[in-house]
Amino acid sequence: MDIKEAIEGRISVRAYQDKPVPKSIITEVLETARWAPSGTNTQPWKVVVAQGQSKQAITNALLDAARNGVKPNPDYLYYPEEWVEPFKGRRFQCGMDLYQALDIGREDKEKRLEASLANYRFFGAPVSLFFFIDNVMGKGSWFDMGMFLQSVMLAARGHGLGSCPQASTSDYPDLVRDILDVPDQYSLICGLSLGYPDDEMPVNQYRTRREDVESFTTWAD
Ligand SMILES: Cc1cc2nc3c(=O)[nH]c(=O)nc-3n(C[C@H](O)[C@H](O)[C@H](O)COP(=O)(O)O)c2cc1C
């Protein structure tokens, strides 16, 4: 697959076939992704692969917490506490496009809640990867994690796999660390659903939008 197609054709996949992903393929994906760059080659990534029982235990724990009204306590603030333009509008559009693909009306709070809880079921994916970083590392190493994450998603495409990065699955990091036996020393960055996409599902058939290059680029003399 050419690099343009690999990058431009990646989407967040939110419906999966009921088909396992062999351990050897997951390993190959990680073998490719480990070539991501990192400041002074520190390679700050720690990955836990959850499948079967561990994935189910995480789903149960996250659903329980959400249904019991437990307040999320993520290890970091992903988003601003107060949204401002242009980000506010883009975020709104992102939600509208997703709900339209799921055929959920603006006022249908119940279906919206179900759609958001589908995150905790990893959208039916057979595998969920969890990405952690050691708390001794600084802000710079968090970009390394972003590059690693994108490398995982692109390498997965090379094997016909789809993925969806999910900050939502780090809403209750203590529960996830506990189930995966990860020390508190590590912050949970996000989960990533991984599996063979169900291309028939409308939720996998829409594309998110992007701004034109001119809107975010200036050319200095
Ligand atoms: C770090 C990260 C966390 C994300 N968390 C979620 C999430 O919790 N749930 C979800 O459905 N999508 C999540 N997304 C997917 C974004 O909504 C998606 O990347 C964006 O809308 C662009 O769409 P695309 O990935 O299909 O190009 C996340 C993306 C990133 C990079």
Characterise this structure:
- With about 220 residues, the chain is an alpha+beta fold.
- It has a single domain, classed as NADH Oxidase (3-Layer(aba) Sandwich), CATH 3.40.109.
- About 40% of the residues lie in helices and about 15% in strands.
- It has a four-stranded antiparallel β-sheet with strand order 1-2-4-3, with helices on both faces.
- The structure holds flavin mononucleotide.
> If you consult CATH, what is the topology?
NADH Oxidase
CATH class: Alpha Beta
Count, helices: 8
Strand order of the largest sheet: 1-2-4-3
Radius of gyration: 18 Å
CATH superfamily: NADH Oxidase
Oligomer: single chain
Main sheet specs: 4 strands, antiparallel
Distance from N terminus to C terminus (CA atoms, Å) equals: 36 Å
Reconstruct the topology from this structure:
Layout: H1 3-8, H2 23-33, E1 45-51, H3 52-67, H4 87-101, H5 109-117, E2 127-134, H6 139-157, E3 162-166, H7 173-180, E4 186-195, H8 213-216
Antiparallel strand pairs: 1-2, 2-4, 3-4
Helix pairs in contact: 2-6, 3-7
